[in-house]
């Protein structure tokens, strides 16, 4: 047997993660419910929660017939659910980890056949009759049969998979190691070293032959063979460099995106659009500059080591090599001075960028209300400061890029002068000149590498908060609660006792000794003046904010027990209009972005039905692509009222026990308000509406 029973799925997850080097946490997972195998959506919730408890992520993904081989090649490690309900622990593309904890190497074809057996079975006899009637030769029949099956079942779902991955906020070094980045970097360094050794050997042969006057055909042939050998080595270097760049850059981008999503609302609210855009720009700069600078520094170090060896073997001896070491120290000092000036210049540049973006965001307001003579107020001072620091950084940059490599030529030749005057052999002088030129080339790379690394180090200052925010641990919750059914009638779904909350740097609490009880089926209206704490209470109930003191329970359990995702399944909200957003994507994506697991045709139909109940039917008829129409900033522009109803539909489609609508109906006219209220009251189990009196 190679498939796992549903009651051992927790053991399968832990064993698969350990075998794959993911280093799962040592926790005791509860036994899954007995009926878990019959409902893949509940199975998915349990697997995702269990993976979170192990410190991992389980990414759900559908497996279609046409994509099966490609999915198997990239999915591992993964838990795969066959169409008949059997569970496979996929260790790599052709390897299964069995319930006996033994590795079974079946091959990709055998695993594909295992997954596709049920889907192909109904067509087996039909295809046999068709091939017989068409008189297809026996030698070609299998190929024709496979082509027909592939065409017939291309879009058929043959299974579900949960891809086990490290969370983006986990150890960055471990993620790089699992992606084999250090190994490929070592191979890259080795390839560079081999390239330079072959290159030096080739020119050594030519130099010896020329200086000794015996440059015969054999030496020329050896020289040509060494140069030809450099061609595949150079190709390998280019391939490895691209592979490392793409892999490391992808891991970095994923972590920064995760960090951006884990920032607290207050951390984002206190930053302007210019500051947020600045972080995005600097994150892109960090990736490109760090990688390019790192590669240049790696190559220059290899060249400098080889140059030191060559110089030590030349006419100048060890003293010439020590002179090279001293020049490297001097280059490092110039690089540090350049870093200091570049940091001041970046601060001035980023400040100007922030101001510019803020002015662009508020352009309409400035045109309508700000006096024309104040439009460019304080810009001259900023430009003058920017010009001053720009001159300073340009001077340091010129010293770094020009003096370091060219200065070495002067110093290196001066260090070789005593040997030249003393009449050293021509061969030894030639070796020293070769080492001197190799070091010059290395210093050119080193100067460029230090320039890039300096830019990357400064960009890191902007990006570091995102990188570090990704490491914030989310509360996993218990897998036993992930599949808990909805609340029963009149059961208390929310209980708040003596809640106290104050914002940072505020002495007075916004909420003090707040008590609230919401039962299943309740319809609540919360009214109050602006600034009275209504939205703050909503943020506390949804878990966006944490109370300073007091007790907050959802169906008798706190957020620590339920976990972050478990809490959201019980309490969801439609925030205020200015805090909600239509993302660039299809209308369907914007509606169903809060749904767990896979989206089925039923989910799409439900989304369209809710849209029509909210009065968005005319909009769907007007949009050329209907539910698949691109909306957002770069797509179809929705009106204020249409956006409000989209936000309402998005909250309804989350299917949580309690839905909180924070001034979601304020922008609707009376007719659409009536439609929206009827839809919400008919579909939401428990509702709280926040509004002004």
Summary tags:
single chain; Cathepsin B, Chain A; Rossmann fold; 3 domains; 6-stranded antiparallel sheet; 4-stranded parallel sheet
Task: Describe the protein's architecture and organization.
With 693 residues, the protein is α+β, with helices and mostly antiparallel strands. It folds into 3 domains: 6-165, Cathepsin B, Chain A (Alpha-Beta Complex); 172-469, ABC transporter type 1, transmembrane domain (ABC transporter transmembrane region fold, Up-down Bundle); 484-691, P-loop containing nucleotide triphosphate hydrolases (Rossmann fold, 3-Layer(aba) Sandwich), CATH 3.40.50.300. Helix content is 60%, strand content 12%. The protein has 23 helices and 15 strands. The chain has helices at 9-19, 40-53, 68-75, 108-120, 124-133, 138-153, 172-178, 181-212, 217-261, 265-269, 273-313, 317-361, 363-369, 379-421, 426-469, 479-482, 534-542, 559-570, 587-592, 601-613, 617-622, 640-652, 670-683; strands at 57-64, 78-82, 87-92, 95-97, 103-105, 157-165, 492-501, 511-519, 523-527, 549-554, 571-574, 585-586, 630-631, 658-662, 686-691. Strands 1-6-2-3-4-5 form a 6-stranded antiparallel beta sheet. It has a 4-stranded parallel beta sheet with strand order 9-15-14-11, with helices on both faces. Strand 2 (78-82) and strand 3 form a beta hairpin. The model has no long low-confidence stretch (mean pLDDT 83).
In the predicted model, the low-confidence regions spanning at least 5 consecutive residues are none
Number of domains: 3
Q: What would the CATH topology of the largest domain be? A: ABC transporter transmembrane region fold
CATH architecture of the largest domain: Up-down Bundle
